[in-house]
Amino acid sequence: MRLERWMGAALALMLAGCVTNTDGEFGGKMPHTSKGQEAEDAARIHTELGQQYMANGDLQTAMDKLTKALQFDNDYAPAHTVMAVLDERINRPEEAEQHYRRAAQLEPDKGGPNNNLGTFLCRIGKGEEAIGFFQKALKDPFYKTPDVALTNEGICQLRMNDRAGAEVSLRKALKDNPQNGEALLQTARLLYLNNDAFRARAFIQRFDALGQPSAVALKLGYEIETRLGNTDAAQTYRRRLQSQFPDSEQAHALDTPASP
Known about the structure:
It is a single chain. By secondary structure, this protein is mainly alpha-helical. The protein has 14 helices and no strands. Helix 2 (35-55) runs antiparallel to helix 3, helix 4 (77-89) runs antiparallel to helix 5 and helix 12 (215-227) runs antiparallel to helix 13 (231-244). Mean pLDDT is 89; it is low at 1-27.
């Protein structure tokens, strides 16, 4: 609530300042902030509030704030993006798609909205369309994280069973950012699927060195070492998985004997 009071005070102060026309130091008139700018600023503040409430798990209040943001300015792209994320959280994929698409329409040349839309489309099985949005994202010369779009493109290509294309995308991602954990993990998975467990091991070890363990990665490490015949290393991955992620699907899968 403290955050909301601060944001509310900031919004009130901002709007009050926008409508007051005072004389400048040299006798001139200070320019008015346009109504459009006022609306955008209000939308931004309510979007930030919505993000904070969503992060805190208060999804209903987050929805209220984001709805208010779009009432202030329906052309404020970040509000559509955050609303799309919230719609996904509450299992409203059709509404989420509409908001992701609107954000990309409002900022057609920006990497972020195009990457977000592509990632969503791939998740819902529209891979062919998704690739086009990843490519649009990569054309933005000011996009700060092209390795993210390249990684998401690679994941999408893997889902489409385009392993050759996925390898190209993932290697480009790692060239841009060798510390991209998701790209390292997906490259290890790709090589494992291609029966190249030896090279897969190198990438899962690079991922492990980042110190960001996950159930998926530990199970993959177990499978890679098992395929290579390294029983001790495989059991180390298994123990780590069962210790760090005992309730995970991956841990339960290793606890369940394989069917004959």
